[in-house]
Amino acid sequence: MRNRRHTLLFSGMVIALTAAGAGSTQSLGAQQSANAAAQTSAKASPARPARAPARPPRTPDGHPDLQGTYDVATVTPLERPADAKGRLVISDEEAAAAEAYDRQREAKDAAPIAADRAAPPVGGERVATKTWLEAVEQFAGGGTGGYNRFWIEQGREIITIDGQKRSSILVDPPDGKVPAMKADARQRNARLRALAVDPSAGEDAAASGPAGAFDGPESRPLAERCLLGFNSTAGPPSLPNYFYNNLKQIVQAGDQVLIFNEMVHDARVVRMGGKHLPPTIRRWMGDSIGWWEGDTLVIDTTNFTGKTQFNGSNDQLHVVERIRRVDANTLLYRFTIDDPTTWDRTWTGEYPWKATPERIFEYGCHEGNYAMTNMLKGARLKEAEDAAKKQQ
After folding, report:
1. Could you give phi then psi for residue 106, rounded to 5 degrees?
2. Measured between alpha carbons, how far is 365 from 265 in angstroms, rounded to an integer?
């Protein structure tokens, strides 16, 4: 059941896992000891070039027709996990074992629990996790009973590109890791975090945020305020959110291309053949212009604002996206990140967007965002209690 039918607050907690590098330590899956050796030694499938449609559909203006609704849910993390041992491509057996483990975990999570179950420990249950999705679910409140299986629609498959199972979305650097942040960038982010809540922060922001983090709604992260999807789901780059609301829609209208996201109904409008806005005009999702290189849609985005930092980037972030059709039901989405004020080099990832007949329903996040009111109310009550204690 997709959570787009419900109106609950969802904070931008998942990006914290990626930013902290948690994805780099999660296993691809729990493999039984009896066949672990065989799976580890299994050879990866040879590359099989994707077979493009014999006659790719075209729009009236002659360009490739990329329009449709796509499901981007996946088991594959952004960064390469440790047990991939640096490999981008894993064997079919390894992929099957990882997918099977997550299916078993999903079935276990969906099973009824005992009515007389004891309360979880303070802070929730924190147990060792074996897969990326398991870590995401625990971090997002599963340990305290929040966002249980009823609300979640996670991916179920490892991504496949050119017939090969991929261990990570990142393909460059070769190790599949986000490049180390420059020292100046680390200091810049530390200064910002001392004055404001991280715009990508999740529900743990109260513990790490600055004084006044709950002074008003404007001090809360954009995702928590239902203003922008978490984990760069809207982009750019447009990434899976690993939780729910996994659909994206592309609409082509001649000199404009719309990329619409199910999560928080974020919409990006790409001006085809246009020029970038002046550098004094900055936007949360940047300023996107596009053009065609053969049958590939190229989108160039600049003019970001510091309010929507991607993985600690600055407003100098530059993202180039490439979208092309690889078969009748699949698009390949590829992105390259560049910010010389944050990283020493560019980094690139890619993953498939799968066509789906499912419809996108409005995600009325604001309508049910009672958590925002309750958090601010709780902060005011705590301030009153603290003031009363000082007078005693």
Report:
1. -65, -45
2. 9
- β-strands 267-272, 287-293 pairing: parallel
In a domain, 117, yes or no: no
> Of 108 and 268, which is predicted with more confidence?
268
Domain-located, residue 151: yes
Q: What b/e readout covers 142-175, taking b as 16+ CB neighbours within 10 angstroms? A: bbbeebebebbbbbebbbbbeebbbbbbbbeeee
CB 229 within 8 A of CB 9: no
Whether 322 contacts 270, CB under 8 Å: no
Residue 269 has pLDDT above 60, yes or no: yes
Q: Quote the CA–CA distance of 161 and 272 in Å, as a whole number.
A: 28
Among 153, 160, 323, 350, which residue's Cα sits nearest to residue 239? Answer: 350
Domain holding 215, by residue range, is: 1-30+41-111+126-392
Share of residues in the chain with pLDDT > 70 (%):
79
Q: Write out the two tokens for 92.
A: 């079919």
Q: Where are the alpha helices (DSSP H) in the chain?
A: 14-19, 36-41, 92-110, 132-139, 183-195, 205-208, 370-391
Task: Classify residue 121: in a domain, yes or no.
Answer: no
Burial string for 260-285 (b: 16+ CB within 10 Å, else e) reads bbbbbbbebebbbeeeeeeeeebbeb
Structurally, how many domains does the chain consist of?
1
Which residue intervals of 65-157 are DSSP H helices? Answer: 92-110, 132-139
Are 26 and 129 in contact by the 8 Å Cβ rule? The answer is yes
144-199: pLDDT as tens digits? 656 667 778 888 999 999 999 999 999 999 999 999 999 999 998 888 777 666 65
35: in domain: no
295-325 as b/e, with b when 16 or more CB fall inside 10 Å? eebbbbbbbbeeebbbbbbbbebbbbbbbbb
CA 302 to chain centre: 20
| pTM summary value | 0.82
